[in-house]
Amino acid sequence: xxxxxxxxxxxxxxxxxxxxxxxxxxxxxxxxxELTHLQRWGQVQxxxxxxxxLKYNEPKPExxxxxxxxxxxxxxxxxxxxxxxxxxxxxxxxxxWKVEVTESEGDVICSKVVPGAGKVFRLxxxxxxxxxxxxxxxxxxxxxxxxxxxxxxxxxxxKHVGPETIVTHEVSASTGGNLIGQRDFLSVRHSCKQKSxxxxxGAAIQLESxxxxxxxxxxxxxxxxxxxxxxxxxTGKSRFTWLLNIDVKGWxxxxxxxxxxxxxxxxxxxxxxxxxxxxxxxx
Length: 283
Prior knowledge:
Layout: H1 20-32, H2 34-50, H3 71-90, E1 98-102, E2 108-114, E3 118-127, H4 131-140, E4 152-161, E5 165-172, E6 183-194, E7 197-204, E8 217-218, E9 220-221, E10 224-231, E11 234-244, E12 246-247, H5 254-282
Parallel strand pairs: 6-8
Antiparallel strand pairs: 1-2, 2-3, 3-11, 4-5, 5-6, 6-7, 7-10, 9-12, 10-11
Helix pairs in contact: 1-3
Protein name: START domain-containing protein 1
Pfam families: START (PF01852)
Catalytic activity: cholesterol(in) = cholesterol(out)
């Protein structure tokens, strides 16, 4: 199946998040704190580089002089934040979603046609894992995803831009059951945490230094975002909502693409559950 299942993209659809006002407040609170956090991170890293090899006491935040982020760093951060903002805005309108699939384990996939984006798919489910565990698997250790998701041949982090933004190159696995065929992706991925929630946003990006690879069709993520929330009554379980918004490129009938994408979401969720179960057994 199409490895777009690894795209960090997701929408909001649970009742307590459906308020337009509530969604806007959440988006503003999450995105508005990012540059401040990254500025502090940049200042500390600058101090560490400056005093490398020397014995100094760890600098206090109030003693650190501001060090501007580089222009290219700001570009990637802003691209990630903008992707997250657009994904949240895309899902503010809760009208028009049509149920595509309902699984016995509670996975529900809905779809709608969004102007400028085409048909997008939203998966909702509950996973037996904490917010931190899912954040670790899907963002911190994203390069290890091929170990548990057979749809992925490899994911390589090309750039680390602060602690919350990365640029990745991903290649899908070549499998007989993949209706769409092997693809590669170049994406900016952005993450942020807010209390008991994690936001993971992303979108396609272009780099002159990393053009499309020979032998692959380069697919493109639309603005996407995952939201992982701890269940109020059980912090060992998480609500997982995921918007799949992707242009697979190539000469493929829409009917084939629209069949493959929701199936890819279900496959990904199944593999993720298996990984979580294995981790729990080892733990």
